[in-house]
Design a protein that fits this description.
Layout: H1 8-13, E1 20-24, H2 28-42, E2 52-55, H3 57-62, H4 65-71, E3 82-85, H5 93-101, E4 108-113, H6 121-128, E5 132-136, H7 142-155, E6 159-160, H8 162-172, H9 176-190, E7 195-196, H10 198-205, H11 208-221, H12 225-237, H13 242-264, H14 269-276, H15 283-290, H16 295-314, H17 318-331
Parallel strand pairs: 1-4, 1-5, 2-3, 3-4, 6-7
Helix pairs in contact: 7-8, 7-9, 8-10, 11-12, 11-13, 12-17, 13-14, 13-15, 13-16, 16-17
């Protein structure tokens, strides 16, 4: 079953007892936000290993029984477990088709994917099967970004100059997660009853912080430990939250995943850069990073990023935990010794 945009909010709030859901689209931020809203309706968050089962596409292809075991497993805490498969492609279609053909169970299945063409076998499977649901996460155009910005300012009772809004629309791009994150910081800075001017917009969306995040992602995915530590210190000295840093790493990883997948499909570097809207100054470095990874490794890292964010929210020392966990992922070690 294919959902319209108007039907999506009601579905996410009440998905039913046995939803088999495909969430797909080019907007990684909206994709992730939609996934989290659906998970929140199905299980208590943050989820543990008994209520949320992560499976990678490669695991299912090599051992199909793992999917059926996950969908029929029981939780010791009373909740029906949810199985999550991220970054799926058409290679998974036949296995999911078999799963949909099995007798109904109490467990839910959530599958996420990037942009899928109308002829995609994975997309068609979920759109046509009455026991499944497909919903798209399309990127916002400039008109929708402008509407979201204006609506948020109205909620916060913040006045604005049109030139300031124009600047924000141009800066935000079309990733809804970036728009939401940036708006949170801007509204906090301006305060209720404040006013956004063009100078404010330039100040709040530019400067060193954005550069630091770019450098942080590059250091992490190129495994440059010393640079990573130095950039972290600069970021945290400016007051940035480690949770925000972990989300930046996750978003960048998702972009790399899209790049790796497109590259495997034979797309040219020029077309890949244009499709993913990579800033021209970052083109060479982005291509270098995707050459170092495969989908399985990136999928594992993205799962680690999700776990890291949950851990950061529960600890009293988020900066230290961020250092330790990220360096462990970069060096495949459990201490800082390799990079100190």
């Amino acid at each position: 079953m294919k959902l319209t945009a108007r039907q999506v909010p009601d579905f996410l709030a009440s998905p039913g007892k046995t939803p088999f859901t495909l969430i797909y689209g080019a907007d990684e931020g909206k994709n992730r936000e939609t996934r989290n809203r659906l998970l929140k309706s199905l299980i208590r968050l943050p989820a543990d290993s008994m209520s949320l089962i992560h499976l990678r596409q490669e695991e299912i292809i090599s051992e199909p029984s793992r999917l059926f075991e996950a969908l029929s497993s029981l939780s010791l805490i009373g909740e029906a477990p949810v199985t999550l498969i991220e970054h799926a492609t058409d290679k998974l279609t036949k296995y999911l088709k078999e799963a949909l053909a099995t007798p109904p169970c109490a467990n839910a299945l959530i599958v996420t994917a990037g942009e899928l063409p109308a002829r995609s076998s994975l997309r068609l499977l979920f759109e046509k099967d009455k026991r499944a649901t497909a919903l798209a996460c399309y990127r916002d155009d400039d008109k929708e970004i402008r509407r979201k910005i204006a609506e948020r300012f109205r909620q916060e009772k913040i006045a604005y100059d049109r030139s300031g809004i124009d600047w924000l629309v141009a800066e935000f791009g079309n990733d809804s997660a970036v728009t939401q994150s940036e708006m949170e910081k801007i509204c906090l800075y301006l305060g209720e009853g404040g006013k956004l001017t063009l100078d404010d917009a330039k100040l709040l969306t530019g400067g060193n912080t954005a550069d630091y995040f770019d450098e942080l992602c590059t250091a992490f995915y190129l495994k440059k430990c010393e640079s990573f530590l130095a950039i972290c210190e600069k970021l945290f000295l400016t007051g940035e939250n480690p949770v925000v840093a972990s989300r930046a790493l996750a978003r960048h990883g998702e972009s790399l995943m899209q790049g790796v997948i497109l590259k495997s499909q034979g797309i040219s570097d020029e077309a890949l850069i244009k499709k993913l809207r990579i800033f021209w100054k970052q083109e060479k470095m982005f291509l270098k990073k995707i050459s170092l990874y495969d989908p399985q490794k990136l999928s594992s890292l993205l799962g680690d990023m999700l776990a890291l964010e949950m851990k950061l929210k529960r600890t009293s020392s988020p900066s230290l935990v961020f250092y330790q966990q990220c360096l462990s992922l970069m060096t495949d070690k459990t201490s800082l010794q390799a990079c100190v």
